[in-house]
Design goal:
The complex is a heterodimer of chains A (about 220) and B (about 375). Chain A contains eight helices and nine strands. Chain A is α/β, with parallel strands linked by helices and about 220 residues long. Chain A has a single domain, classed as 3-Layer(aba) Sandwich (Rossmann fold), CATH 3.40.50. In chain A, helix 5 (about 110-120) links the parallel strand 5 (about 100) and strand 6. Classes of the chains: A alpha/beta (about 220), B alpha/beta (about 375).
Chain lengths: ~220, ~375
């Protein structure tokens, strides 16, 4: 791995003074200040709060749990209750610059349709997933003969909200089938160790990343960073 | 024997608080095409208008509410109907915001309505008062703001019929509203709600003391009819779990069923009778007819060519909608329809559904989630304005 990737392609996520979970901090680093954002699966609004207050974004949240929505609104963040499968269809085309879907794509029943809707209402989406292709997941499945049980995939299959488990490669395939493009993408291991996923080298991330964050773009549009 | 309390129409000119004559006494054009004037609006204010004149919160009251949201009510002697929400340090913080609550058009607490004097005849209007709409109420509130020199409000807030006014406010004056908080409301009155209102109106009109709406000159009051109307309506404001929790099948001041005709055997009967009896002391029967009619006519979707989103297209106002799980009069589904329309219109909207077994009335009661979310929302609006 180290032969293929330069030092700047790997870094450690430190603690941040905002108390953001490391993977959310990584998502936040991919957001342009002052952009119009929709955070789907915003939970209690931890990421949204940062994006609105620190990056001056016009951010709005969608959350399936009413308790999460109420928490967002109580802290002054706009949020509505809704599930990604049905809710996104209401938004007008191009009503946002970016849609964030952190660890929610695997919890929806129609991930392909959700991705289509996201790319309809914004030209950029940030999608994060748990990677079921990680080596420990593979070993777990092969040796135990049961669904992967690892540090990050810690819930039993009947409790997990991930009704659509997928790997880094699976997601990249979906992006290609949908004729979309990817911008900057990262793999995360041990919650903090980040590696840039280079196009054509997804195989490594698929083995060694426990989580992954993808910037998905409409075709023929690549953002330079 | 004590003297019977005065009727509402006899005291409405002597109520405490300011009363504005709109547009210098000129007639106001109503949605029906009729002209009504002069129009007076009685209102209450709390807090201080800031220098930028942008910290106003306008409260729209519900069907049987009035301007006395906070403080002691001059007729009932009870605390204001929204004391839980309004006051120093409360979600509608009178230390921070300038709060205005007007009595709605058609009301009977000092604002022009059927119990006011018709200057053309020198008599009280009665049923010669023109039919009014929610839109007319909103128009009159906007004229009151003109009168007070307030161009823009930081928030229009209200529950039930107040929520209808809030929704209409932004549709009519999108640039005069920074944020809108409709609570337990709907963009149109449902068939079931119209039906309940009709029961109430029929009860009033069936009372021989109603006299075709001109009971004032007869020195009569259709108290029985109005009280039955209130009793029927009051049931719709509660919920079966709330009624059961409060009363169950408990008997009133007795150990067993009386088998003696139709006195109030059950506590719930006694409670409703009390609700009816106390209501007639502070409300005018004709006002009840006119205001329920205004609610029944309300349909923002029809007003906008069948596309509710068009009502708020292009507004920059932020919305917070709230509904309660056990509210069957203005159920969550009604609020959600508004939310979907607002999203389609690209409006910045928040929506909170609050778990409560208290029915529609929950918006007037102690609901911590309501206070937290409303206060968080208003605070963020205030901060966006820089105070």
């Amino acid at each position: 791995m180290s032969l293929l990737l330069g030092a700047r392609d790997r870094f450690i996520l430190g603690d941040n003074r905002f108390g953001l979970r490391p993977d959310l901090a990584l998502v936040a680093s991919m957001i342009e200040p002052e952009s119009r954002l929709l955070d789907v699966g915003c939970g209690d609004g931890a990421l949204l709060d940062y994006l609105v207050r620190e990056l001056s974004c016009d951010g709005r949240g969608v959350e399936i749990s009413q308790a999460g929505v109420n928490a967002c609104v109580a802290r002054g963040l706009p949020a509505v209750q809704g599930d990604a499968d049905r809710h996104l269809a209401d938004y007008p085309d191009d009503s946002f610059d970016c849609v964030i879907l952190s660890q929610t794509l695997q919890a929806v029943s129609k991930p392909r349709e959700v991705l289509r809707q996201m790319m309809r209402i914004a030209d950029t989406a940030i999608v994060s997933i748990l990677n079921y292709g990680h080596i420990s997941a593979r070993v777990s499945l092969v040796t135990r003969g049961r669904m992967p049980h690892t540090r990050i995939l810690s819930e039993p299959w009947f409790e997990s909200s991930a009704i659509r488990p997928c790997t880094v490669r699976d997601f990249m395939d979906l992006v290609r089938i949908e004729k979309l493009a990817t911008g900057t993408c990262y793999g995360i291991a041990k919650k903090r160790e980040v590696t840039v996923i280079r196009p054509g080298f997804e195989g490594q991330a698929n083995l060694f990343a426990e989580q992954a964050v993808f910037e998905v773009l409409r075709p023929r549009k690549r953002r330079s960073r | 024997m004590t003297q019977a309390p005065k009727a509402v129409h006899e005291i409405q000119d002597d109520l405490p608080g300011p009363r504005a004559e709109l547009a210098g006494g000129a007639a106001v054009r109503l949605e029906s095409g009729e002209r009504l004037g002069p129009v007076h609006v009685a209102y209450q204010t709390w807090g201080t208008l800031n220098e930028a004149r942008d910290n106003t919160v306008l409260i729209c009251h519900a069907l049987t509410g009035d301007q006395y949201a906070f403080g002691i009510h001059p007729v009932t002697g009870k605390t204001g109907w929204w004391e839980s929400m309004v006051g120093p340090g409360k979600p509608i913080d009178t230390d921070r915001y300038y709060v205005i609550c007007p009595n709605c058009l058609g009301g009977c607490m000092g604002t022009t309505g059927p119990a006011a004097v018709n200057p053309a005849t020198g008599e009280l209007y009665g049923t010669s008062f023109p039919i009014i709409t929610i839109g007319d109420m909103v128009h009159v509130q906007a004229m009151l703001l003109d009168h007070l020199g307030i161009e823009k409000v930081m928030c229009v807030i209200g529950g039930s019929m107040g929520a209808m006014q809030v929704l209409d406010w932004v549709a009519r004056y999108p640039d005069r509203v920074v944020s809108a908080v409709p609570i337990a409301g709907a963009a149109r009155h449902s068939a079931q709600n119209i039906a309940f209102h009709e029961v109430g109106r029929q009860a009033i009109m069936a009372d021989p003391n109603w006299c075709g709406g001109f009971y004032y000159r007869e020195g009569k009051r259709p108290e029985k009819g109005l009280s039955v109307a209130r009793m029927a309506a009051h049931i719709t404001y509660l919920s079966e779990p709330a009624l059961w929790r409060k009363f169950g099948r408990e008997l009133q001041n007795r150990y067993m069923k009386s088998y003696e005709g139709f006195g109030a055997d059950f506590q719930v009967e006694s409670y409703l009778r009390h609700q009816g009896a106390s209501f007639v002391e502070r409300f005018d029967a004709n006002a009840y007819l006119y205001i329920t009619r205004a609610m029944d006519y309300f349909d923002l979707e029809a007003d906008h060519g069948g596309d509710l989103a068009k009502a708020w297209q292009g507004t920059r106002a932020r919305f917070l909608l709230t509904s309660f799980t056990s509210d069957w009069l203005f159920p969550t589904s009604e609020s959600k329809e508004v939310v979907h329309a607002l999203i389609r219109a690209g409006v910045n909207v928040s929506f909170v559904e609050i778990e409560s077994d208290k029915g529609h009335d929950a918006f007037l009661l102690d609901e911590p989630d309501l206070f937290e979310t409303t206060s968080g929302f208003l605070d963020s609006v205030a901060r966006s304005l820089g105070f």
